[in-house]
Specification:
Structural class: alpha+beta
Number of helices: 10
CATH architecture of the largest domain: 3-Layer(aba) Sandwich
CATH topology of the largest domain: Rossmann fold
Mean pLDDT: 90
Radius of gyration: 24 Å
Strand order of the largest sheet: 8-9-7-10-11-14-15
Distance between the termini: 39 Å
CATH superfamily of the largest domain: Peptidase S8/S53 domain
Strand content: 15-25%
Length: 590
């Protein structure tokens, strides 16, 4: 579910499994004893030797002691790459075309499934460490973005920025832990790579092999440090579990299994999963390979949840109704996709697994054009960017925009982290319930595809998550006012968006907060003023910024001489030709 707009657009050839940026595919995954695993800290110690034709398999057996089935793997043309006794899942490699069929006849084997239609890369046996990019420095400046005001994260921070005891796992392409906005909250001790399906705990193995995971991490928990951006929960700790493989950036089932097992064993309260499990956009239980993938990943997610971890996942970017599946045209994405007929029994995993919170994307007020949807599939919604994108961290100390359900999911993950911060001991089931009950209803538009009620429908699920409610507060009655309607900004013209304030006693404060979100491709054309009810102008932006795109900022205005009640206006004047835009939304906090 990644493609991209990183300021300058990334090529759409990026693998479809990522759930982020402009649509290229769908999603952009009682306490038990810790699993006994074959634990070589450095995969170079793996004894197997790669040969052409090597494929990966999940071999499913009863949880407990997998030793007998592991022996059978070795005697039937395979090698054991990794195993998880606690859930009865073995990751096996074999170059034998008969391996799966043979193993399905072995006593104690419940399922066997190939996880790829391509060879396991030779890199699996001695993985190269990802690059550690040189870091750019960014000066002071940390404007509050429109996506944060949309879910009231900026108001939540006045209550709490989250607890450092809450661990959040970013299961993705990796994270640049050296980034100035991520380093303060990065937890290296619980970070690793799960590429190829076994933990690699070498320092830096968790780093980004793309940019997607770093962008996601910033939305969850970029530090509130006066630089760049602020995440939804800027006080919690983030760990990177890289499950994408270098080169392809694909997320195969064994990698996801490894990631969920790691999450459970390392105390992650929440994980973010902005991807689908490659190579199948949908895994169908009537296919032996895909049935084993479903079962293996399901067991790993169930294990993580049993250890106290909630999984949040992106719904996907193919504008599909997940409640009425008919066709898959994108699978397998590691070889040659074919068109196949599917049913609702076929699952987009991990997002459609039991217990996982499925997140759709919206723009300012509507479903994002690319977002998957589905009644009783989508749980909640959050900003994912549509026309303007979500601005966040990129490797090398940089920043940029992406759009997608990949960008919506980390907003929900951040809200879940705030919930966990203010509710110590909360269980995954309770977190799911609170995310739903605290979400703000979003009604269906005039679109026949949207089924359900205002309280729960296929486009938005239970509604848009609310960070302020997550920290145990509600907007002060009569003190927060917003106009979310779009107002077009034409060339060489002036437009005003009004907000009528009522119920506030006395004058406006000396620190009136004015949140502004304007989409415009050349903000150096713009003059932006707050107009008080008596007509007094308070300048906010005066033709600065040159060719920079968009204004997403909260301004502080001394309006103490003004009566609070009345109609306030945001006035935007365009002073040149060639670039147009719109007022997306703006608000006043008294």
């Amino acid at each position: 579910m990644l493609a991209a707009a990183l300021g300058a657009a990334l090529a759409f050839g990026t693998p479809a499994a990522l759930a982020g940026t402009d649509p290229v595919g769908p999603t952009a995954p009682a306490a038990q004893a810790a699993p006994r695993t074959s634990t070589a800290a450095t995969p170079a110690s793996q004894s197997a030797t790669w040969v052409a034709g090597t494929r990966a398999y999940l071999v499913i057996t009863a949880p407990g002691d997998t030793s007998a089935v592991r022996t059978a793997v070795a005697t039937n043309g395979g090698t054991v790459f990794q195993y998880y006794d606690a859930i009865g899942v073995i990751v096996a490699h074999s170059a034998s075309g008969a391996f799966a069929a043979t193993m399905r006849g072995v006593a104690g084997v419940q399922q066997v499934g190939a996880t790829r239609t391509s060879d396991v890369p030779a890199d699996a046996y001695n993985p190269a460490l990802p690059a550690n990019p040189a870091q750019s420095s960014t000066g002071a400046g940390e404007p509050v973005r429109a996506d944060m005001t949309q879910i009231k994260a900026d108001q939540a921070w006045a209550v709490t920025t989250g607890s450092a005891s809450v661990k959040v796992g970013i299961l993705d392409t990796g994270v640049d832990d050296q980034h100035q906005d991520l380093a303060p909250n990065f937890n290296a001790a619980d970070s690793a790579s799960c590429a190829y399906g076994k933990p690699d705990t070498r320092s830096g193995a968790w780093r980004d092999v793309g940019s997607h995971g770093t962008h996601v991490a910033g939305t969850v928990a970029a530090a509130k440090n006066g630089k760049g951006v602020i995440g939804v929960a800027p006080g919690v700790k983030i760990s990177s579990v890289r499950i994408a493989e270098p080169g392809s950036s694909l997320f195969f089932a064994e990698n996801t299994v490894c990631g969920f097992m790691w999450a459970g064993d390392h105390g992650f309260k929440v994980t973010n999963n902005s991807y689908y499990t490659d190579p199948w956009q949908f895994n169908c239980p009537d296919n032996a390979d895909q049935a084993a993938i479903i079962e293996g990943v399901r067991r790993a997610q169930e294990y993580a949840e049993g250890k106290g971890s909630l999984q949040v996942a992106a719904a996907g970017n193919s504008n599909l109704d997940l409640a009425n599946k008919t066709t898959d045209t994108e699978s397998p994405n590691d070889s040659t996709p074919v068109t196949r007929t599917i049913t609702n029994a076929c699952l987009d995993i991990p997002t459609e697994l039991p217990g996982v919170v499925t997140v759709s994307a919206m723009g300012t007020t509507a479903k994002a054009s690319y977002s998957n949807y589905g009644l009783n599939v989508v749980d909640v919604t959050a900003p994912g960017g549509d026309a303007t994108g979500i601005y966040s961290t990129l490797p090398g100390g940089k920043y940029g925009t992406m759009s997608g359900t990949s960008m919506a999911s980390p907003h929900v993950t951040g809200v879940a982290a705030l919930l966990a911060s203010t509710n110590p001991g909360i269980t995954p089931a309770q977190l799911r319930d609170k995310l739903a009950t605290q979400a703000n209803d979003v009604a269906c538009p005039s679109d026949t595809r949207c089924k359900g009620t205002t309280a729960k429908n296929g486009f938005f699920g239970e509604g848009q998550v609310d960070a302020l409610k997550a920290v145990g507060a509600t907007p002060p009655a009569g003190k927060f006012f917003e106009n979310g309607a779009d107002y077009a900004i034409a060339d060489n013209a002036t437009v005003e968006s009004p907000i009528t304030v009522t119920g506030v006693t006395g004058n406006a404060p000396a620190a009136l907060k004015v949140g502004v979100s304007i989409a415009h491709t050349y903000i150096g054309d713009l003059k932006v003023d707050l107009v008080a009810p008596d007509g007094t102008l308070y300048p906010l932006h005066n033709r600065t910024g040159g060719g920079t795109d968009n204004i997403n900022q909260t301004y502080t205005v001394n309006a103490s001489s003004e009566a609070a009640n009345g109609t306030w206006k945001l006035r935007v004047n365009d002073n040149a030709g060639g670039d147009t835009g719109r007022i997306d939304t703006w608000n006043l906090t008294f």
